[in-house]
Amino acid sequence: MNEERKLCVTVLGSTGSIGLSTLDVISRHPERFEVFALSAATKVDELLAQCARHKPRYAAMASAPHAAQLAEKLKQNGLRTTVLTAHGAMEMIASHEEVDAVMAAIVGAAGLGPCLAAARAGKRLMLANKEAIVVGGELFMRTVRDGGANLMPIDSEHSAIFQCLPEDRSTWAERVDHVLLTASGGPFRLRDPKTLGAITPEEACAHPNFSMGRKISVDSATMMNKALEVIEAKWLFDLTPEQVKVVIHPQQIIHSMVQFQDSSMIAQLGTPDMRVPIACGLAWPERIASGAERLDFASLSALTFEEADVARFPGLHLAWQALRAVPGTTAVLNAANEVAVEAFLARRLRFDRIHAVNLETLAAVAPSKPGSLAELLALDIEARAAANAAALRLAA
Ligand SMILES: NC(=O)C1=CN([C@@H]2O[C@H](COP(=O)(O)OP(=O)(O)OC[C@H]3O[C@@H](n4cnc5c(N)ncnc54)[C@H](OP(=O)(O)O)[C@@H]3O)[C@@H](O)[C@H]2O)C=CC1
Ligand SMILES: CC(=O)[C@@H](O)[C@H](O)COP(=O)(O)O
Ligand SMILES: [Mn+2]
């Protein structure tokens, strides 16, 4: 480690799957990292336990009643963490002058405001929250540039691409032909398409390789996760939509690849464990222990690859369509998908109708190029209204 001072970290969404993995990596390096603030929406006891362990200055909760419970429990346990819940609390802990790095691990568009706050304040912004960049698009990247933030991809595929690329960003455009995102194909890669209507939330959340939050798990099952990742890659690496390609690789040992102009291809490999990209994002350009198991090539079975089946995964192609349409279309697609997934998880919508909700919403909402966060949020609200109406019409 070069500097003596510890890296002061805010973890947004600390009670979720990425949040827990982040705190696991941080705990392995008490000499390098200290936790400044944590945030959650509803899991009071989990956040309380994290406060006891990491002693953050602040704990922010999205819901006021949960924040009140947390404050009471912290007091009972003699812990001095200050609880925040007011509008702007997440933005405050993401942009505080004492913070060096922010793990953006809130799920959904709700994470966009805090991401922009961290970017504006020039933080090391570790981006797991892919919906934020899918919604924010050009505005997100402009805010990162203008704020002088250091944007570190955490999504495993994008971390892989980042690790494959030359350190000098100014050479990316001339050297890279395209990037190839790997996809697991989810739990229904081999399932008879005629049976997709009967799928339960429990089945959809049973990802073959990763234990993740419920929303991203459903997205993996529809391959909308890969659609969001195509859009994410376009913005992170300044690519055209055509320069982002997808291949199914069920074992998820290769996390993604870069094809260079001279036909050389560089891939990043590892066991499927999010602590690897998280450790990379926290320490880059240094490399620190993540706790992940190491690859053992002798015991690996075959690494296989196949094309995504369009009939089974119609949502995947919406990524390229949305990227070629009016700016703002990706925000509409994201909002529609968040609403549809929520309806499916609440058993109000069949799994195989998520795509129909997304299509109907895209047809109903005509965005004009959003130039500000306020305009993006207004578009998000309009798209959610249209998606809710579509979900009701298509209800199970
Ligand atoms: N899990 C993974 O392996 C990967 C995840 N990602 C991305 O990272 C992000 C987080 O995913 P994951 O950790 O799986 O999700 P989880 O559902 O496990 O966790 C989400 C976190 O966000 C909090 N949260 C939920 N809604 C809000 C809100 N409205 N305002 C503030 N906080 C909120 C939750 O609080 P509470 O728990 O208290 O309700 C929780 O801490 C997603 O964007 C996902 O796509 C990317 C790659 C891999
Ligand atoms: C770990 C991670 O980054 C997830 O996005 C995961 O890779 C999901 O994979 P699939 O969407 O390919 O199933
Ligand atoms: Mn991913």
Topology:
Layout: E1 7-12, H1 17-27, E2 33-40, H2 44-54, E3 58-61, H3 64-76, E4 82-84, H4 89-95, E5 101-104, H5 112-120, E6 124-127, H6 130-147, E7 150-153, H7 156-164, H8 172-175, E8 176-183, H9 201-204, H10 214-222, H11 224-236, E9 244-248, E10 254-260, E11 265-269, H12 275-283, H13 318-324, H14 329-345, H15 354-364, H16 373-393
Parallel strand pairs: 1-2, 1-5, 2-3, 3-4, 5-6, 6-7, 8-9
Antiparallel strand pairs: 8-10, 10-11
Helix pairs in contact: 2-3, 4-5, 5-6, 6-11, 6-14, 10-14, 11-13, 14-15, 14-16, 15-16
Describe it for me?
- The chain is α/β, with parallel strands linked by helices and 396 residues long.
- It folds into 3 domains: 7-154, 3-Layer(aba) Sandwich (Rossmann fold), CATH 3.40.50.720; 156-272 and 292-308, no CATH class; 325-396, Rna Polymerase Sigma Factor, Chain: A.
- It has helices spanning 17-27, 44-54, 64-76, 89-95, 112-120, 130-147, 156-164, 172-175, 201-204, 214-222, 224-236, 275-283, 318-324, 329-345, 354-364, 373-393, and strands at 7-12, 33-40, 58-61, 82-84, 101-104, 124-127, 150-153, 176-183, 244-248, 254-260, 265-269.
- It has a 7-stranded parallel sheet with strand order 4-3-2-1-5-6-7, sandwiched between helices. A 4-stranded mixed sheet has the order 9-8-10-11.
- α2 packs across α3 and α11 runs parallel beside α13.
- The longest helix is centred in the last third of the chain and has 21 residues, at 373-393.
- It is globular.
- Residues 155-157, 183-184, 186, 210, 220, 225-226, 274 line the site of 1-deoxy-D-xylulose-5-phosphate.
- Keywords: Isoprene biosynthesis, Magnesium, Manganese, Metal-binding, NADP, Oxidoreductase.
- Catalyzes the NADPH-dependent rearrangement and reduction of 1-deoxy-D-xylulose-5-phosphate (DXP) to 2-C-methyl-D-erythritol 4-phosphate (MEP).
- It comes from Variovorax humicola.
- It catalyses: 2-C-methyl-D-erythritol 4-phosphate + NADP(+) = 1-deoxy-D-xylulose 5-phosphate + NADPH + H(+).
- NADPH binds at residues 15-18, 41, 129, 131, 213.
